[in-house]
Design goal:
The protein has 663 residues and is of the alpha/beta class. It has five domains: 69 residues; 91 residues, Beta-Lactamase (2-Layer Sandwich); 135 residues, Alpha-Beta Plaits (2-Layer Sandwich); 208 residues, Alpha-Beta Complex (inorganic pyrophosphatase (n-terminal core)); 117 residues, Diaminopimelate Epimerase, Chain A, domain 1 (Roll). The protein has 24 helices and 23 strands. It has a six-stranded mixed beta sheet with strand order 7-8-6-9-10-11. The chain has a six-stranded parallel beta sheet with strand order 14-13-12-15-16-17. The longest helix is centred in the N-terminal third of the chain and has 49 residues.
Amino acid sequence: MTSKRILKMNMPEVNLYIVIVGIASIFLLYYNFYIGCLFFIGFLYMVFNNWKTTNIRRKEWTNYIQNLSLDIDETTKKAVMNLPIPLCILEFDGSITWYNGKFNTMIGEDDLLGVNIDNLIKNLNLRKVLNENKEMYTDISYKDREYTIVYNVIKNENGKSAKYLMMLYWIDKTDFLHMQQKYNEEKNAIMLIQVDGYDEVLKSTNEENRPLLSVAIEKELTSLEINSTGALRRTSKDKFFLIMNKKELKKLEVDKFSVLDQIRKIDFGNNLPVTISMGIGIDGDTINENLKLATGALDLALGRGGDQAVVKTKDKFAFYGGKSKAVEKTTKVKSRLIGHALREVILESDHVFIMGHKYPDMDAIGAAIGIYDICKSCNKTANIVLNYANESIEEFIKRIKKSDYYDGVFVDSDYAIRECEKNTVVVVVDTHRPNFTECPQLLDISDKVVVIDHHRRGVDFINDTVLLFHEIYVSSTCEMVTELVQYIEDDVRINKLTAEGLLAGISLDTKNFAFKTGVRTFEAASYLKKSGADTIEVKKLFNSDIKDFITKAEIIKNAKVINHNICLAYTKTESDNINIVIAQAADELLNIKEVEASFVLGRKDDRVFISARSLGNINVHVLMEKLGGGGHRDMAGVQLDTSLEKAYEMVEDTIQTYIKEEE
């Protein structure tokens, strides 16, 4: 190719030769007429021959181009006709003007010309395509096949007029979707299983039946392994590891993890029920990530009381079960270990800040005062962060401020933020949710955060704690702090007012020792009584005025019974202690015959407070969690920034959904 180009560059054009011959013939005519005539005749011949040859080549080239265009048009037509995907051309009114064989095969009918496509296939918004005037896509199902339709508007010009048509390309993606579905269904799901309170359950069983109990648990889990075509391994006496695919996991979710109910039916004379907690990790990028997700899910299941399954992906949780009450642990080993560890953490710091949840109750403020006394026994400076004293704790706060023993104990958030450093210990009591604390900023400033709480664990949790004391079976945070006090030092003594605050917190959360009361609850109360707590003074902390009684009467009057066993009520009366009033009203509604749960709403400062109570059969924690709150199985609540009417509607919808799920 390169040599031809060089040759063409070195050779003059044919026309140049003719010109040279013409000039030469003129010169020769001047010097020699005959020779000049001969050359001139040759010149004329060359001109004629060149014209003739050029004309012939031009015609041949024109014919070649025309034939080539015809060939291209024919090839294009054949390509469109034999296009491996269905294709049709429509008028904008939907009538079919042309279609290829694949489209005919897809529809399965003959003579489709002029037929309106809306009569064949629904949900084709052709007008939208015309308005958008650009290429669009639509996913549609037709005859058990899945298609992506590509719309393309074309302009067909005919003389001075122009006509718009629409081309529809039907891309069949059914096989791709089936493959994608199969890929998703074959993803591995990792399940970590733990028997709740295994040692306590065994102790409650006759010794000769204990092996049978263990075998029965493993038999149920082996049945789960076989039915799910998974692989089960026992990793310790009370822990199991199960791996299955996502398809089988979805079946378990549809079945609401009925294995939880099967395990609960195991009975070999054991006084405590057999329950399991399951943490499942799925949709991680690697198997290791699924294992981490499963570990987090199991921690969450245990933190919510056990007897439930938690499915965790990278961005969401799903909860199943949670029908049993948490089993009280009779041993105080953990309290002793936490007590010693807390003392070491406090001794390593120069300053301690203590805070509970916003709108604190007696359980929060009583526990905070208990931790303050612990810090004082360690000769460390401590402050309780409190921005606002509501009526439920106002009387106790007045008593604290009158005592020189607690001089300067309370500070606001601004002071705490200024004084807090990385080495400062921040103790959070009666909540584990960062946004619920009195001053969330302290959690970001300090590197030493301690959490002491008894509420069922929610999705939002304070992470990176140096010490975590989270026991959901305990009646109250004050009970937990009372046990810690006993293990800080052998000769530790707490102030009389601290003892009364702790006893008031226990009384509040147990409804005067009627709910969630175990052996250790009475032991803690006994210790506080020995420390000087006066039960009469504790009772005075809960006295209310006549307005509160009137408001509670209004709530009871507005009560609505749902499904014969659930009470829903509200009050439009606003007061500073509305959260306490509705909590007391919710307790009162449980005294109604056949009522097993109550929900009461009240409003204060453009915020709606909801208090939920249960006798145990209905898990109000799960219902309040759906609205963004939490608590316990038999006592929970939530705060909503909405109108009272809207909040009432939301609670009623949540109750109705729960009833349908339980049917």
